[in-house]
Amino acid sequence: MADTAEKVLEIKGLDISFRSSTETIHAIRGIDLVLRKGETVALVGESGSGKSVTMKAAMGILPENAEINSGSIIYYEKTPEGEQRETDLISADKEWIRKNIRGKRIAMVFQDPMTSLNPTMTIGDQLSLSIKTHEPGLKKAMIKERAIGLLKEVGITEAERRMKQYPHEFSGGMRQRMVIAIALSCNPEILICDEPTTALDVTIQDRILELIVSLQQKRSLSVIYITHDLGVVAKVADHVNVMYAGKIIETGTVFDIFYDPRHPYTWGLLSAIPDPDSGDELYSIPGTPPYLSKEPEGDAFAPRNPYAMEIDYKAEPPMFKVSDTHYAATWLLDERAPKVSRPEAIERRIEKMKKEAADYVNI
After folding, report:
1. In sequence order, which residues have a C-beta less than 8 Å from that of residue 101 and are 6 or more positions away?
2. CB 233 within 8 A of CB 44
């Protein structure tokens, strides 16, 4: 997806804290992100890196103890006259967001469908409620027709009969398809997928990924995909943002990140992708992410970074430019830093991915 495509969402300098009676957690520490029409942007990182919090801010569903310290989340839309209108979702009226943005323009698919679906309501009632909420004037027959059409679109057979059933009567994969149907019920422009395949087995994961890609192409959706699994990212993303400790530490196209990763944390994530053909022991990044009740001194990844230098413990690295599309926040890219080669296991994996991509193109 070319960077010339029009923007639909832009996050600038987003900074978020969570306050309690005893401490303040600085969860998001200056995020910049752009989503363009028709593309998929991935947010990748370990649990607690701030991926979901960032997107919940865009949806306006942060908990009450969250405080947005600074930044903006700009939603771009075309007016009936064809002009582009910009709305800052942080400063916009919350009731206006509920009626006009959340679910209607920006929809979200969560990780566990059982926590997204109401166990006391039939699938048909839940789909119908979502449609009626944003289109109250729609007739009952038209709502039912659209609901049945949505179930068919996400690959659910015998849709009319399924409308009368409850969530517990379906498998995990079928329930996730229903959550996707509800998210699509008001024809959103942006779909946020928050680890939508994590609770599913591997074969079902692939089918859900294929469904999301198919729906994106059919509906010209712009998608933000949240995951900890770079293996999933390779199948769906155009652009990748690697997050750690509330910051984006490497960003680029999917080819930049997979074929030319520059940050040691990205190397660790790539090494942690299971590869039964390699013979290498599955890698695990040592240590744990920092607890952000205290500002990290220097680079937040330094205590876990086998390539850390003295400066990593003293100063936070800026974003160094690798190319026009690729940036990474690591002192290893400073011209004064010693030259460090990527681990051999990573180099082997990159060569394998390039070969697999070439074989796929030649099929």
Report:
1. 59, 60, 75, 87, 89, 92
2. yes
Structural contact between residues 197 and 210, judged by C-beta atoms closer than 8 angstroms: no
Q: How many CA atoms lie within 13 A of 324 on its CB side?
A: 2
Cα 325 from chain centroid?
A: 19
DSSP string, 217-267: HHHT-EEEEEES-HHHHHHH-SEEEEEETTEEEEEEEHHHHHHS--SHHHH
Tokens linked to 338: 């010693």
Please check whether residue 205 is in contact with residue 197, taking contact to mean a CB–CB distance below 8 angstroms.
Answer: yes
Tell me how many helices (H) and strands (E) the chain has: 12, 12
Q: Which residue, among 242, 232, 348, has the nearest Cα to 285 in the 3D structure?
A: 242
Cα within 13 Å of Cα(235), Cβ side = 15
pLDDT in tens, 245-302: 999 999 999 999 999 999 999 999 998 888 777 777 778 899 999 999 999 999 999 9
Query: Quick check: pTM over 0.90?
Result: yes
Tell me the C-alpha distance between 8 and 232, whole Å: 23
Q: What is the DSSP letter of 285?
A: -
